[in-house]
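Researcher: Let's continue the batch. This sequence belongs to Alanine:cation symporter family protein, and it's 187 residues. Same format as the previous ones, please.
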Amino acid sequence: QAIRYGVARGLFSNEAGMGSTPHAHAVAKVKHPVEQGLVAIVGVFIDTFIVLTFTAFVILTTGVLDGKTTGIELTQNAFTQGLGNFGAYFIAVALFFFAFSTIIGWYFFGEANVKYLFKGKGLNIYRLLVAIFIVVGTTLKVDLVWELADTFNGLMVIPNVIALIALSKIVKESLKDYNENFKVKDI
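Model: Same format as before. Here are the structure tokens for Alanine:cation symporter family protein:
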């Protein structure tokens, strides 16, 4: 169970393997596509190894881990214990920006998909559905929201990993080209 939730929360946090961030990386203006691959790797590293590890250390070292409190409440308690009221406000503000930017980001990704798949038709329906799901999402039990997120994230990984395997030869060729033709000073 610990592995299941660890993988699910890690996937939710960094989206590695889901195929969600290529939308954002595809619009970047770079000299070589490998540059954006490296940026994507750095993003996962910062999110997973720095932010999440730091959060885990705060939880483990502040003495708030009681086996009853979980999730954001546990994190907020830990930061409050370590930093006083500033910790509580910091987590509240960080959570707000995380939630807001997540809604904006996923909206952008979804709109790009609707434009591509349906040649721009159906955008108003998509926008309406997004607004409805945002409102409905605030009324659902948190456990149900997490289960839905975990399920749909897992479903996104399957076709993306298949595509990653199918495209691995192109990735290797691109990396070889990048290593042969670009130097750090050229970037």
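Researcher: Any comment?
Model: Residues 9-186 form one domain.
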